[in-house]
Design a protein that fits this description.
Elements: E1 3-7, H1 11-22, E2 26-30, H2 38-41, E3 51-52, H3 56-61, E4 63-65, H4 71-76, H5 79-88, E5 93-95, E6 100-103, H6 108-121, E7 125-127, E8 131-137, E9 140-146, E10 151-153, E11 156-159, H7 174-181, E12 190-192, E13 196-198, H8 202-205, E14 210-220, E15 228-236, E16 240-242, H9 244-250, E17 261-266, H10 273-286, H11 302-312, H12 325-336, E18 338-345, E19 353-355, E20 376-378, E21 386-387, H13 392-409
Parallel strand pairs: 1-2, 1-11, 2-7, 11-20
Antiparallel strand pairs: 3-6, 4-21, 5-6, 8-9, 9-10, 12-19, 13-16, 13-18, 14-15, 14-17, 15-16, 17-18
Length: 410
């Protein structure tokens, strides 16, 4: 019987421990927190978007970095396998918009409890100690050393410590340092699925204002085609913008230090320019004696009106019955293209996932084993692979964790 050590009790680590034990290994799971999978507890606003009910091609299309690398692990454990796993573990699931899968209870704790219970049922030993070092001998794994100075001997070790996002959950980047010390290259770490910092000062005045059913497009300077464009929900903050649309958009922004990006919000995506013009004329005809600044209540949220008025460059005190066609054109341009200059990401600690990690060329995609250290395996966010929102990042964790555990036990 092989003895396997798993470092990290998140989604990837728990699945790796389960998979290795299922294949007959004697498994030890090291988790520094008293409760495993703390990050899973806060995913999907506490509801846990556990996977996406999609086929292989759709899944791979939604992997921002490392899609080819994911082919084998997804074949070993697909979205449907994840759904079956939790259904069989007593967690009924439901599929919502965008094929996002949630527990019917809308409680992330049900997903966490199911994972932990499945691991315990396989007799995995959970040790609440922080691993500081992976011990090797003759370019092969020998064991691990914990913060308490204890040494544990293993035939295989799976590194599943997560990224650097949400460090309060235990994701502090320990795995990167351990991998580096063994000769592995770690690519540049940056936040992904993260709020965006904008130049415009009016964002702070609109802090907390949520916009629903708007279209957000992200443009790279010098390019006509947007790098991202999608309909959904977003929100203004004191530093810029956030919300589901914004988090998705951030994964499409590359090298923000070297390139200029802008966000363009279509506040009325359901209306063509002609339809919007007719709507404006109708509203103005009903409010013909009102000042322009007081005639947009039916069209916009109250807090947004002063911003739109200023950006349209129309005199706020001008009576709407005297607004010209050219001025209406400016108003339409503003409503269909509210522009914000993006000047950065929020810190990686606020990101949903970390982009970057252990270089994929140094990992076998067929087994998740290191090409440098025999018996060392990787799973989840610690690797340079990440996806867009919609349950894809948790599926990366489950697929790579399952394959790593299976491989480590053989």
């Amino acid at each position: 019987m092989k003895k396997v050590g798993v470092i990290g009790g998140g989604a990837a680590g728990l699945m790796a421990a389960y998979s290795a034990a299922e294949k007959g290994a004697n498994v030890y799971l090291f988790e520094r927190n008293n409760r495993p999978a703390r990050k899973v507890m806060i995913t999907g606003k506490g509801r846990c978007n556990v996977t996406n009910n999609c086929d292989r091609d759709t899944f791979l299309d939604n992997i921002a970095h490392g899609s080819r690398f994911m082919f084998s692990s997804f074949s070993a454990f697909s979205c449907q396998d994840t759904m079956s796993f939790f259904e069989n573990a007593g967690v009924p699931l439901k599929t919502e918009r965008g094929n996002r899968v949630f527990p019917q209870s809308d409680k992330a704790v049900d997903i966490v409890d199911a994972l932990v219970n499945c691991v315990k049922a396989k007799k995995v030993k959970i040790i609440n100690e922080r691993v500081l070092e992976i011990v090797t001998e003759n370019n092969g794994v020998k064991g691990v050393v914990t913060e308490q100075g204890k040494e544990y001997l293993f035939d295989s070790v799976i590194l599943a410590t997560g990224g650097k996002s949400y460090p309060v959950t235990g994701s502090t980047g320990d795995g990167y340092n351990m991998a580096k010390s063994l000769g592995h290259k770690v690519t540049k770490l940056r936040p992904s699925l993260v709020p965006l910092v904008c130049l415009q000062g009016f964002c702070s005045n609109l802090c907390g204002l949520s916009l629903k059913n708007v279209n957000l497009s992200i443009f790279e300077e010098g390019k006509k085609k947007p790098v991202f464009s999608e309909l959904g929900e977003m929100m203004f903050t004191d530093f810029g913008i956030t919300g589901p649309l914004v988090l998705s958009a951030s994964a499409h922004i590359e090298k923000i230090e070297d390139k200029k990006y802008s966000a363009v919000i279509d506040l009325k995506p359901a209306l063509t320019r002609e339809m919007l013009d007719k709507r404006i004329l109708r509203d103005f005809s009903e409010e013909c004696n009102k000042d322009f600044a007081n005639a947009l209540d039916k069209l916009l949220p109250q807090r947004l009106i002063s911003v739109i008025v200023k950006m349209s460059q129309i005199d706020p005190k001008k009576k709407v019955n005297s607004i010209t066609r050219e001025e209406r054109e400016r108003l339409i341009n503003t409503l269909k293209g509210l522009k914000l200059d993006i000047i950065g990401f929020r810190p990686i600690e606020e990101a949903v996932v970390t982009s970057g990690g252990i270089h994929l060329k140094e990992i076998s995609p067929n087994t998740m084993e290191s090409k440098i250290i025999k018996g060392l395996y990787f799973a989840g966010e610690v690797m340079d692979v990440d996806g867009y929102t919609g349950g894809f990042n948790l599926q990366i964790a489950f697929s790579t964790g399952y394959l790593a555990g299976e491989s480590a036990a053989l």
